[in-house]
Amino acid sequence: MINDIKTGTQLPGCEKKVDRRSIDLYAKASGDYNPIHTDEEFAGKSRFGGIIAHGMLVLSYLSQMLTNNFGEKWTENGRLDIRFKTPARPGDVLTIGGIIRDVKDTGEKMLVVCDVFCRNQHGEPVIIGEATMKFWKGG
Predict the structure, then answer these.
(1) pLDDT score recorded for residue 2
(2) Under the phi-then-psi rule, with left for phi > 0, alpha for psi from -120 to 50, and beta for the rest, what region is 48?
(3) Residue 110, by phi and psi: left (phi above 0), alpha (psi -120 to 50) or beta?
(4) Which are the contacts of 139, defined by CB distance < 8 A and separation ≥ 6?
(5) Which of 29, 35, 46, 88 has the smallest number of Cβ neighbours within 10 A?
(6) What is the DSSP code string of 97-110?
(7) Between the CA atoms of 112, 98, 61 and 128, what dihedral angle is there, to the nearest 10 degrees?
(8) How many helices (H) and strands (E) are present in the chain, helices listed first?
(9) What does the pLDDT look like over 93-104, one tens digit per residue?
């Protein structure tokens, strides 16, 4: 796998549809019942004009894409530096992906840096950022 990692490689991405069920399940699992995520009336009066998905729910989709691409290497020592740009809403179809921007070989290990993104169906960025992980050679 390490030999296949090259600068400019597009990471196989994924699509996720945001729906109320996912938002409600995330609220239950996380204990985050902020009304901006759960209460139509409250959220409708907010600056967002309606329910929005939890940022960490959307971020989990990005992490899933990285796990699909890098497996244990991502879960063991991956790091994200991201910005939330626009909220995800029920009904949005999100495209999650990335590209390998840099690969540094330091002898014992490789440092892989990827530009990552999550966009809604209108092409608007929901999350943008950088993922980094270390690959120790031989294991």
Answers:
(1) 46
(2) alpha
(3) beta
(4) none
(5) 29
(6) EEEEEEEEE-SSEE
(7) 100
(8) 5, 5
(9) 999 999 999 999
